[in-house]
Amino acid sequence: MLANRDDFRSVTLLNGAKSPAELLFTDECAEWRQREDVVYLETVDRGDSDWEGNVGVITTLIPKLEIDPRRTLAAICGPPIMYRFVILDLLAAGMAEDDLLLSLERRMKCGVGKCGHCQMNSKYVCLDGPVFSYHEIKRLTEAL
Ligand code: FES
Predict the structure, then answer these.
(1) Range of the domain at 32
(2) What is the pTM of this model?
(3) Which own/partner contact pairs does 74-83 have at CB distance under 8 Å and 24+ positions apart?
(4) How far is the CA of 143 from the centre of ligand 1 (A)?
(5) Could you tell me if the CB of 104 is within 6 A of ligand 1?
(6) What number does the ligand 1 atom closest to the CA of 116 have?
(7) What percent of the chain has pLDDT over 90?
(8) 106 lines ligand 1 (CB under 6 A)
């Protein structure tokens, strides 16, 4: 998206970690903070003595956004417990299930459909994904 920035209207990036030391991609985060064509918000569950940013789980950032549900696509990556709460908040904001894209790469092992490690009911993450819309997987008991 950043490489083709003109193809998109607004781009918002929410980043969360348990603590400031656990924030990933710190070089990229510094760049995103500086960009005027990207809204970048970050939060940590627990701050430290140097932290001046938002404290709270990632969903505490969602009310700060102006979401036009008809023109918004969300790409969500993180632990399954986070997915559950982010999905609830984005659905409450009016977003469609098809517009919530979930990365499930963490479930993969062999990556070629042989080991079954990634299987969620009838779907294989490595063959059918690894990115699924919420609508595709919401009824799979093993997905989230
Ligand atoms: S990761 Fe082995 S079958 Fe998908």
Answers:
(1) 5-101
(2) 0.90
(3) 74/99, 74/100, 74/101, 75/101, 75/103, 75/131, 76/100, 76/101, 76/102, 76/103, 77/102, 77/103, 78/16, 79/106, 80/144, 82/16, 82/57, 82/58, 83/144
(4) 14
(5) no
(6) 3
(7) 88
(8) no
